[in-house]
Amino acid sequence: MRINSLATLAGALALFAGAVSFAQTAAPAADPFPPVNPKFFDAPSPTAADVDAFLKAIWGYDINRTWRVEAVQKTAAPGVSKVTIFVADKSQGNKVESVRFFVTPDGKYAIADTVFRFGAKPFEDNAKLLDAEANGPAEGSASKKLLLVEFADLQCPHCKEAGPTMDQLRKDFPEARVVFQNYPLTQIHPFAYKAAAMGNCVAAAKGDPAFFVYIKDVFDHQESLTDQLGETTLTNAVKAAGADPASVATCAASPAAKAKLDAQIALADKIGVDQTPMIAVNGHLMPLGGVPYETLKQVVAWDIKQGK
To answer: Mind listing the pLDDT tens digit for each residue in 45-65?
Structure first.
């Protein structure tokens, strides 16, 4: 979901225009935000207090808006930090959205959107990395000449909504190899990690086709991924895929399953995935939601022409 414009800089520049939210969920009015995790603060500057002071300067006038600084992280660009904040608006039911921006090394400028590689082949590094390490369940061609890699969270509503888009891409580009890479957003989706681990185990036991049956069933019953029904929902999806629930549960709890899933998450982080769903087209990473299908189709066709 896109945020149109949340603030301006110098009275003209839309700081957050086009910033993308990876989550939007209804939340309790008392404290709508997930707890802060210190591991997401690995950059020396700016501090959370610096960010908070900046937000107060631009948003302090709005009594309905609340926020929390959730991350200040290093990036591949020396001295450039990525800041993630969660924002809620009381007048809009306290729904939570995420906003990201980048702060320059001198601490004087904020840059909305993301940091991109520059040059004639800006996606080449990602393409090589995905060729080598995107080893999730796959459909379509055995060739990687056109490699579409989807990064998704099985408890993410927008990932469920992206299903028809991925189906249409498979139809329109039968020459594509389509790979599914788990990227569970554990801060906001408590069943996402286990659902992903179990899916990997289904694929290991019954093959890639069974995995896609499994994730379809999880998405079809996503609203039941609750404390009361979550375990049953995942068990039923394993059964739908033709796998043994007990064996899959044992596998999903193993150190090997954790290592595999953590490697998938690490790969996503390496290439810059910071929300779900996202798709990489021969290394060209972009949000999968909020983009008209015809535009996405044009991007894929253009990337095919450019090659890897």
So the answer is: 999 999 999 998 888 888 888
CATH 3.40.30.10 boundaries in the chain = 124-306
Structural tokens at position 277: 């769903």
State residue 198 phi and psi, 5-degree precision: -65, -35
User: What's the whole-model pTM score?
Assistant: 0.69
Verify cis geometry, omega within 30 degrees of 0, for the bond prior to 277.
yes
**Which letter does DSSP use for residue 35 in this model?**
P
How far apart are the C-alpha atoms of 98 and 22, rounded to whole Å?
A: 6
User: Between vectors from CA 207 to CA 167 and to CA 151, what angle results, nearest 5°?
Assistant: 45
Give 91-95's long-range contacts (Cβ < 8 A, gap of 24+): 91/64, 92/64, 93/26, 94/26, 94/27, 94/28, 94/29, 94/32, 95/24, 95/25, 95/26, 95/27, 95/32
Cβ density class 205-234: b for 16+ within 10 Å, e for less: bbeeebbbbbbebbbebbeebeeeebeebb
Domain at 124-306, CATH from 2.60.40.3550, 3.40.1180.10, 3.40.50.300, 3.40.30.10 = 3.40.30.10
DSSP 188: T
> Which residues are bridge partners to 286 per DSSP?
279
